From TrEMBL:
SUPFAM superfamilies: Glycosyl hydrolases family 6, cellulases (SSF51989). This is Glucanase. Keywords: Carbohydrate metabolism, Cellulose degradation, Glycosidase, Hydrolase, Polysaccharide degradation. Gene3D superfamilies: 1, 4-beta cellobiohydrolase. The keyword Hydrolase applies. The keyword Hydrolase applies. Coiled coil: none annotated. Its EC number is 3.2.1.-. GO terms for molecular function: hydrolase activity, hydrolyzing O-glycosyl compounds. It is an enzyme of class 3 (hydrolase). It comes from Rhizophlyctis rosea. Belongs to the glycosyl hydrolase family 6. Pfam families: Glyco_hydro_6. One of its GO terms (biological process) is cellulose catabolic process.
Length: 243
């Protein structure tokens, strides 16, 4: 089936399902944020190493960290894809308990430096299967040196991934780099040009919901001084698309 017909059929079906995202709406609004049970177990294990008895403070830490702070599920290996099946079954059960959709955050890592054994296609198939859930998918390209020798293939494969993750219950984002790295004007201009090229080559009706950036190692004391990179980066992208 042609991509246009397949996407249209999926959109027509998914709009009747809980996980569908209305055009122009915020996919992160009015949802139940799914927290993987595997993450909760890891949190409990870590806390237990530092707290010897179950005090009121211990219970509070468990509640805040494990239940109120959802995390994304990383998909990077065969094992990750297998884990995802269990995650989606669990999330689907939780979603049926309420009237709002359950949001599952996925990070598809190491694109496009993947092979068929890494089960990236399986992830796309599962997204369509679980139409009762809502997904926020972040595609993370691999800047490895071996990809530098094949920049056009790198771009085409990212476009392919974005296109194949399209579904009415899915918002697709592209990783645009580290927030600290994007604070430098030279990097912003180069990144904006690359992102514009990737987005410009995505076949319609597929689309990218937005960009993501990493804030790892960004200290809260200086966060305010780093707020400008994303706004400036957005300006660079606008200028690039208009040129």
């Amino acid at each position: 089936m042609p991509a246009e017909r397949s996407y249209a059929a999926g959109s027509a079906l998914a709009k009747f399902l809980v996980g569908a995202i209305a055009p122009g709406s915020n996919p992160f609004s009015n949802v139940y944020w799914y927290v993987p049970t595997s993450w909760q177990k890891e949190v409990y294990s870590s806390i237990a190493q530092y707290v010897s008895n179950s005090t009121g403070q211990f219970d509070h830490i468990q509640s805040v960290v494990a239940f109120q702070q959802p995390v994304a599920v990383w998909i990077a290996t065969n094992e990750s894809a297998d884990d995802l099946k269990r995650v989606l079954k669990d999330a689907s059960k939780e979603g049926r308990k309420g009237d709002v959709p359950t949001l599952v955050q996925l990070i598809v890592y190491n694109l496009p430096d993947r092979d068929c054994s890494a089960a990236s296609s399986e992830v796309a198939r599962l997204i369509h299967k679980y139409a009762d859930l809502r997904f926020a998918v972040i595609n993370v390209g691999n800047p490895a040196s071996k990809c530098a020798q094949a920049p056009y293939a790198h771009i085409e494969l990212l476009q392919y991934a974005i296109t194949n993750f399209q579904a009415a219950n899915t918002a697709v984002y592209l990783y645009s780099g580290h927030g600290g790295w994007l604070r430098w004007p030279d990097n912003q201009a180069a990144a904006a040009k690359l992102v514009s090229e990737i987005v410009g080559g995505i076949p319609k009706p597929a689309r990218l919901r937005g960009l993501s950036r990493s804030c790892v190692d960004t200290m809260f004391e200086i966060q305010s001084s780093r707020e400008w990179p994303l706004n400036t980066f957005a300006w660079f992208i606008k200028e690039e698309r208009q040129s």
